[in-house]
Design goal:
Elements lengths: L8 E6 L7 H10 L4 E4 L11 H11 L4 E4 L2 E2 L5 H15 L5 E4 L4 H6 L7 H19 L5 E4 L4 E5 L11 E3 L4 H10 L2 E2 L11 H14 L8 E10 L9 E2 L1 H13 L5 E6 L3 H25 L1
Parallel strand pairs: 1-2, 1-12, 2-3, 4-5, 5-8, 8-9, 9-10, 10-11, 10-12
Antiparallel strand pairs: 6-7
Helix pairs in contact: 1-2, 2-3, 3-5, 5-6, 6-7, 8-9
Pfam families: Bac_luciferase (PF00296)
Protein name: LLM class flavin-dependent oxidoreductase
Keywords: Flavoprotein, FMN, Monooxygenase, Oxidoreductase
């Protein structure tokens, strides 16, 4: 663990609050040159618009940014249909969709919305099956068959195929979920609120061990990070709470010292201001510092 040497990417974590200017913020992220816009997926949250509907609208009003659910709520989104939705959005957007996926973190809320209430073990079992189902559906094959405890394919016909190779990123934190990520996913998508920097080495180690056991290079697994904080004018108020120079130093350390390669801004405060400062003041500085440290 340290620096996996992957190219850096930067994005914006859009909270889908119906009262916010969501499409304006997405367009601002696109214009600012960010690589990604992620939208959290909590269908039971009454203030939020539906994530897939919003992602489709974002893709329609932007030109270059890639979009993804951060992360899709598996218990409320059957994986074969989820795969079809992602492939469709990818085809319609010219290859600008990726898929973040999680086992569903709020069982009571999921159950209230008609979904299955799963134990932590069942959630990882279902996520494991879902990865297989999604890959099968993206293959475009016919007569697809899969028999799992939670999900099944019985002679399914898949299509259309995605416009590009959609990456599947898992928002996992437990040992079995991390092993699944290392074995079968294209990326790992935690948040700094729970996967704090001090915990990253042990979490990476689980992913890397499973990747090697599956015959993969650990560097093939993208490491994305939803970074929660505020860019301020004042002195430091702690991790990711301070001026742009502090953010640049901390994200550089996370890239070259803690193995993360893609940073999704989950900002507190005025969103337009935070987004602009991140794109203009933080991102170029991180790119320059990481390039310098890697060069040295």
């Amino acid at each position: 663990m340290g620096d996996y040497g992957r190219p850096l990417e930067f994005g914006y974590f859009l909270v889908p609050d119906a009262d916010d200017p969501l499409l304006d913020l997405a367009r601002a992220a696109d214009r600012a040159g960010l690589d990604l816009v992620g939208v959290q997926d909590h269908p039971y949250q009454r203030r939020y618009v539906d994530t897939w509907t919003l992602l489709s609208m974002i893709a329609a009003v932007t030109e270059r940014v890639r979009v993804f659910p951060d992360v899709a709520n598996l218990p409320l989104r059957p994986p074969a249909v989820l795969a079809k939705a992602a492939a469709s959005l990818d085809a319609l957007s010219g290859g600008r969709a990726e898929l973040g996926l999680g086992g569903g973190g709020f069982p009571e809320a999921v159950e209230a919305f008609g979904g299955p209430r799963r134990t932590p073990k069942e959630a990882v079992d279902a996520l494991t099956e879902a990865v297989t189902v999604i890959r099968e559906v993206w293959s475009g094959g016919r007569n697809l068959r899969f028999e799992g405890e939670h999900y099944r394919l019985r002679g399914a016909k898949a299509g259309p195929v995605p416009a590009h190779r959609i990456e599947l990123w898992l928002g996992t934190g437990g040992p079995r979920g991390l092993a699944l990520t290392g074995r079968a996913a294209d990326g790992w998508l935690p948040s700094s609120s729970w996967a704090t920097p001090d915990k990253l080495p042990a979490l990476h180690a689980r992913i890397d061990e499973a990747a090697v056991a599956a015959g993969r290079d650990p560097a093939d697994v993208r490491r994305l990070y939803n970074v929660n904080g505020t860019i301020t004018d004042g002195t430091s108020g702690g991790f990711l709470r301070g001026p742009a120079s502090q953010w640049a130093d901390e994200l550089t350390d996370l890239a070259v010292g803690s193995g993360m390669d893609s940073f999704i801004l989950w900002a507190e405060g005025d969103q337009e201001t935070q987004l602009r400062r991140f794109a203009e003041d933080v991102v170029p500085a991180v790119r320059a510092q990481v390039a310098q440290e890697r060069g040295a």
